[in-house]
Design brief:
There is one protein chain. This protein is an alpha/beta fold. It folds into two domains: 3-152, Alpha-D-Glucose-1,6-Bisphosphate, Chain A, domain 4 (2-Layer Sandwich); 158-455, Rossmann fold. The chain is built from 14 helices and 21 strands. The chain has an eight-stranded mixed beta sheet, sandwiched between helices. β12 (219-222), α5 (235-257) and β13 form a beta-alpha-beta unit.
Length: 459
């Protein structure tokens, strides 16, 4: 039976690395972003008889995988075994070997057999081995980086964090990351039982919010808002974009301001749309606001947090760039034509795109929760913005596809309307001056590396 082993040295104790794997958010953090995986059932964690049922998309088909946990030695070992799934046999041993009080080696050992015996092994053995190497390279990188981030602020203890927009792209990743670090995540949801088990209800349109969500909380991360990249912008859509941000932020901040003991910190999403279309001009947090609908939205969005600031809460406005993720957002919409070799630059291709990887954005939010230097506007972008043409060529290189089909500016405007002008053709060259000053440790500051990590693409 084939056996493969992957190992990585970690800068934490074996007990700490083991405990991270036992947290509820760890499994979500370890799922490769390029895979389509849906968790159907999960109970018991990694302890004996813990059970996990998930669906994995393979081509046009969904494959069900059921695993059960067996041997379990705290700080040293846990094992999961496939009960039902695509392999004839799958046994996964997770081992943690101490090297010192502050270092260990993470070892993943997998014994597996493909269906079809020797014929199955001959036909699929090579691709399975490549897939395992990609998957565990990602898992070990993610484990190492998450543990490093949590370790930076371990002396401050665990926090209770209220999160709005927790089921969105950023909110889901942040919630899993915080849970993996042992922090309590309280989700604000549009509909909920209200008992805190699944979330706390709020309805910004009706001015309703469950005060129990904030009782004893240390911080709030406010991410909720109408998507700006779905549907054509008409008067109703633009009003929904504006109101979902302003009304929700105002309700939250007025509520916090009235509390006798409010959370100390509010991290509120904003966007680099604040700066408008600035051509080749490099802008940072000291730059003024620009023109256009998105600049108007961002100004109103940030101003709506004023009641919290006046109440003495440390308010951070994260001006977020394009989030690079294989799980959602702009990249996912680009992938189908690029994978078919039909991708190309938009307009002239000279417009700047200021971007950030999803993992680095989660890391920035985490730093903002713990580091009191974060206050006011903070540009959440990579230090290396690229032009649309550079982005196009880099994505084509990673996917190993040509990028010879441009979409001229008039066509972009015809297809996308005003949204095309403000999101796709405008140029915003943003510098993360405050992150640089704080020595924020970027995980993937270069676009090619970020794309390879998200897409599981080797050199």
């Amino acid at each position: 039976m084939p056996t493969v082993t992957f190992q990585t040295d970690l800068g934490v104790s074996a007990e700490r690395a083991f405990d991270w794997h036992a947290q509820p958010g760890a499994f979500d953090r370890l799922m490769p972003p390029w895979e389509r995986i849906e968790v159907l059932e999960r109970e018991g964690g990694i302890k004996p008889d813990g059970r996990l049922v998930m669906r994995i998309r393979k081509g046009p088909l969904w494959v069900t995988w059921e695993a059960r946990h067996g041997a379990y030695i705290p700080g040293e070992l846990f094992i999961d075994d496939q009960i039902k799934g695509p392999f004839r046999r799958w046994l996964h041993k997770h081992r943690f070997e101490a090297r010192s009080d502050r270092a260990c080696t993470l070892i993943d050992e997998i014994e597996y057999a493909l269906p079809g015996g020797s014929i199955g092994a001959a036909l699929g053995g090579g691709s399975i081995r490549t897939s395992l190497e990609q998957t565990f390279a990602f898992r070990h990188r993610r484990t190492r980086e998450d543990l490093m981030r949590h370790d930076r602020h371990a002396s401050q203890g665990q926090k209770s964090v209220v999160v709005s927009g927790s089921h969105g792209l950023v909110g889901s990743a942040l919630s899993a990351f915080l849970s993996g670090g042992g922090h309590e995540v309280r989700r604000l949801l549009r509909s909920s039982s209200g008992n805190g088990s699944s979330g706390y209800p709020w309805n910004p349109d009706a001015g309703e919010i469950d005060l129990a969500a904030f009782d004893g909380a240390d911080a709030v991360v406010h991410l909720a808002g109408e998507s700006i990249a779905t549907g054509r912008w008409n008067a109703a859509k633009k009003q929904a974009i504006l109101e979902s941000r302003v009304a929700g932020t105002r309700l939250m901040c007025e509520t916090l301001a009235k509390m006798e003991h409010p959370p100390r910190t509010l991290v509120c999403a904003s966007a680099i749309g604040f700066y408008g279309d600035r051509g080749d001009e490099a802008v940072d947090e000291a730059s003024g606001s620009g023109d256009g609908f998105l600049a108007e939205v961002c100004r109103a969005w940030e101003e709506a947090a004023e009641p919290a600031r006046q109440a003495g809460i440390r308010v951070v406005h994260l001006r977020i760039g394009m989030v690079v993720s294989a799980q959602g957002g702009a990249l996912v919409k680009m992938l189908p034509p690029f994978k078919m070799g039909a991708g190309g630059r938009l307009g002239s291709g000279r417009q700047f795109m200021s971007w950030i990887s999803l993992d680095d954005l989660v890391g920035v939010i985490h730093e903002a929760l713990f580091d009191d230097r974060y206050q006011g506007p903070v540009n959440a972008v990579s230090p290396h913005p690229v032009t649309n043409l550079e982005f196009t060529k880099t994505l084509g290189k990673v996917l190993k596809r040509p990028t010879i089909f441009p979409m001229p500016g008039p066509m972009v405007r015809l297809v996308f309307g005003e949204m095309g002008d403000e999101l796709l053709l405008s140029s915003t060259r943003v510098t993360p001056s405050r992150l640089n000053a704080f020595d924020y440790p970027f995980s993937t500051p270069q676009l090619e590396e970020a794309l390879r990590v998200e897409l599981g693409a080797t050199q």
